[in-house]
């Protein structure tokens, strides 16, 4: 196969970049990339090497154990070679691993499933039952002597229960609760903060002064026997029991698996429950249970063929910006959008990410064809964290904000809002903008008209059935039946949903009206304070601005919206079709004065329902986790918000505990 020049150049850049970041991570304990972003870059290089074998080099990070010893620590040559694990991120990769094992074993293998602790690997040597040496993995052949620091870990025995010779492998970790406290203390002293618990643990163990490690809440789990003077256990499960019998700390959270269903069930359970333990885990390791089969399967130059690290969905990934276009919002604001090479992040496929505004693009120096780090902000919104400049191709090009767009009305002119970073259409009211306003009006947070999404709204607008909010209530079933894709059942359901939306709480109406700066929380504050639309409409800018949680910017925006004659006329028309109910906020309640953040998928409540209960209990529904957050209610697939809560030490509870707190 011919090796394309572009592939060769990309592989070279990836190899150089990975070597740099591996040195920062493994040697200096000062990472600049997240673990998941590093993993994605390594996977891209491995895929290139597999597709083009001519690219493969023996010293590639995909073919060897990465790491090196620090010069100030004594060197140790390992008596038993040390390995890392090959990674898997999808069920398909796990099934492929299982298929390879089955071909060699001639049947369905069983596995031992263990949590993958995100810490620093150590190799411990006991002679006649006494701990004589502890070393880091290093490059798999040469490690660092860290005996003086490992001895400070209270739960690690200096003497085994039997006087045997033993070499074991394990992971030193720093408790998450201790990590937060450690960083708080470093901040007070003006010292640089640790990036994560893993690097804090590594930084503690790789010190010359053991008193530093002794002050930190380090723990260790032992998971493998490298050599023993006794009979070797016959299975991985028996091996863990053997280690525990000798008095070594073993993680109890492991499980035997007879099938891949057991594997996937265990992985899914811990993907959701990883916040339940006080140490950081980034996946699980599945190991062939039978030791004789392990010996048959053997090793590659880097990793055992009988084990696999099955990682949790990455929260940060790398991808490529293929194009940048504009989209128009319901207020006429124009937002640049990056079209990405599709990539899985936090469990979903992402192909687009907002770039916010012109200043954001310039600040991050984002260009078309750039390789970027992507994450999901607040569990939901794809966000570009940074550009990997080292991988920028020559064909990359800057994106310039256009002066005209077909998304705008009139002649399509665009202007930058004075004093702001935003751009908007000079002439508002284009088809696209109005469609977005109508979709928002009918959306779940506002009037909640089920079945009235973007395609339906555009179809209604294209056939001149709807042009503004009030028109939605004039649509008939017969008119819907004339449209493509509408049959009796679908038309009846949409009409029923429109009828149900005629009775609307004031806060939901305010959300749907697309008043600038008025979202869920602000709408609730306004509705609870003024109680009726008439009272709100009559409020002055000063009166609005004085409401706690509103302020002058929102007060000015709301007052201006209600002064506009077109908006007043719209409200008059709407009131012919809808009944507006009052919203009252309790002055006291079980959550009074507290800020609660809802994240993930709850068992019985939607996020909107849970946030409504927070408000009715006197609390505030927050959108982001901070030190001011009282607690977080987390469901399944809780991502960065849950991680942030754990990092800050914010209490986390289940839906059941949340409902108990409310007295429900």
Descriptive report:
Strands 12, 13, 14, 16, 17, 19 and 20 form a 7-stranded antiparallel sheet that branches. Strands 2-11-10-3-9 form a 5-stranded mixed sheet. A hairpin with a 3-residue loop joins strand 16 and strand 17. It is built from 24 helices and 26 strands. The protein has 5 domains: 5-55, Helix Hairpins (Orthogonal Bundle), CATH 1.10.287; 75-311, D-amino Acid Aminotransferase, Chain A, domain 1; 316-415, Nucleic acid-binding proteins (OB fold (Dihydrolipoamide Acetyltransferase, E2P)); 431-581, DNA polymerase, domain 1 (Orthogonal Bundle), CATH 1.10.150; 595-662, BRCT domain (Rossmann fold), CATH 3.40.50. It has 664 residues and is α+β, with helices and mostly antiparallel strands. The radius of gyration is 30 Å and the shape is elongated.
Percent range for helical residues? 25-40%
CATH superfamily of the largest domain: DNA ligase/mRNA capping enzyme
What is the CATH class of the largest domain? Alpha Beta
The secondary structure category is alpha+beta
User: Main beta sheet, described?
Assistant: 7 strands, antiparallel
Low-confidence stretches: none
Report the average pLDDT across residues. 86
Total separate domains: 5
CATH architectural category of the largest domain: 2-Layer Sandwich
Could you give the distance between the termini? 66 Å
Number of strands: 26
């Amino acid at each position: 196969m011919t090796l394309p020049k572009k592939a060769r150049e990309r592989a070279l850049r990836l190899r150089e970049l990975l070597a740099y970041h591996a040195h920062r991570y493994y040697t200096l304990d000062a990472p600049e990339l997240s673990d998941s972003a590093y993993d994605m870059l390594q996977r891209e290089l491995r895929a290139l090497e597999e597709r083009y074998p001519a690219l493969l080099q023996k010293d590639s990070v995909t073919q060897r154990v990465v790491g090196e010893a620090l010069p100030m620590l004594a060197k140790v040559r390992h008596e038993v070679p040390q390995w890392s694990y090959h990674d898997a991120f999808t069920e398909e990769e796990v099934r492929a691993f299982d298929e390879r094992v089955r071909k060699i074993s001639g049947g369905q293998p069983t596995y031992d499933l263990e949590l993958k602790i995100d810490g620093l690997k150590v190799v411990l040597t006991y002679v006649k039952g006494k701990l004589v040496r502890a070393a880091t993995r290093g490059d798999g052949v040469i490690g660092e002597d860290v005996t003086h620091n490992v001895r400070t870990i209270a739960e690690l025995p200096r003497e085994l229960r039997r006087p045997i010779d033993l070499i074991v492998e394990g992971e030193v970790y720093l408790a998450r609760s201790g990590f937060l406290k450690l960083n708080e203390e470093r901040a007070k002293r003006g010292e640089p903060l640790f990036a994560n618990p893993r690097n804090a643990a590594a930084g503690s163990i790789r010190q010359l002064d053991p008193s530093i490690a002794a002050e930190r809440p380090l723990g260790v789990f032992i998971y493998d026997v490298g050599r023993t003077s006794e009979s070797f256990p016959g299975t991985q499960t028996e091996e863990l029991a053997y280690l525990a019998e000798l008095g070594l700390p073993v993680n109890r959270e492991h499980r035997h698996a007879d099938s891949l269903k057991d594997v996937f069930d265990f992985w899914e359970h811990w993907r959701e429950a990883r916040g339940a333990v006080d140490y950081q885990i980034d996946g699980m390791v599945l190991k062939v249970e039978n030791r004789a089969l392990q010996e048959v399967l053997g090793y590659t130059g880097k990793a055992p063929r009988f084990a696999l690290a099955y990682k949790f969905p990455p929260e940060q990934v790398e991808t490529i910006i293929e194009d940048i276009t504009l989209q128009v919002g319901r207020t006429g604001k124009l937002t640049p959008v990056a079209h990405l090479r599709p990539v899985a992040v936090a469990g979903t496929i992402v192909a687009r990410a907002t770039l916010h505004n012109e200043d954001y693009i310039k600040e991050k120096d984002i260009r078309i064809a750039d390789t970027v780090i992507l994450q999901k902000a607040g569990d939901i919104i794809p966000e570009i964290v940074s550009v990997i400049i080292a991988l920028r191709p020559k064909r990359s090009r800057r994106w310039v904000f256009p002066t005209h767009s077909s998304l705008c009305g009139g002649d399509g002119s665009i202007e930058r809002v004075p004093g702001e970073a935003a751009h908007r259409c000079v002439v508002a009211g284009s088809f696209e903008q109005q469609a977005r306003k109508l979709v928002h009006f009918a959306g779940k947070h506002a009037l909640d008209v089920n079945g009235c999404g973007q395609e339906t709204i555009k179809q209604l607008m294209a056939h001149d059935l709807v042009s503004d909010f009030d028109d939605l209530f004039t649509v008939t079933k017969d008119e819907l039946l004339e449209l493509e894709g509408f049959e009796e059942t679908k038309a009846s359901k949409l009409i029923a949903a429109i009828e149900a939306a005629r009775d609307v709480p004031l806060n939901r109406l305010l959300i749907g009206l697309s008043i600038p700066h008025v979202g869920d929380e602000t709408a609730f504050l306004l509705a609870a304070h003024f109680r009726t639309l008439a009272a709100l409409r009559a409020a002055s800018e000063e009166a609005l601005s004085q409401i706690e949680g509103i302020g002058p910017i929102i007060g000015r925006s709301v007052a201006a919206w209600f002064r506009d004659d077109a908006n007043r006329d719209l409200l008059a028309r709407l009131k012919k079709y809808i009944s507006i109910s009052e919203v009252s906020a309790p002055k006291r309640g079980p959550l009074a004065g507290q800020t609660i953040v809802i994240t993930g998928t709850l068992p019985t409540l939607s996020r909107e329902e849970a946030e409504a209960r927070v408000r009715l209990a006197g609390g505030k529904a927050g959108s982001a986790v901070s030190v001011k957050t009282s607690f977080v209610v987390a469901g399944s697939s809780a991502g960065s918000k849950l991680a942030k809560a754990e990092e800050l030490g914010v209490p986390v509870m289940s839906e059941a505990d949340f409902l108990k707190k409310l007295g429900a």
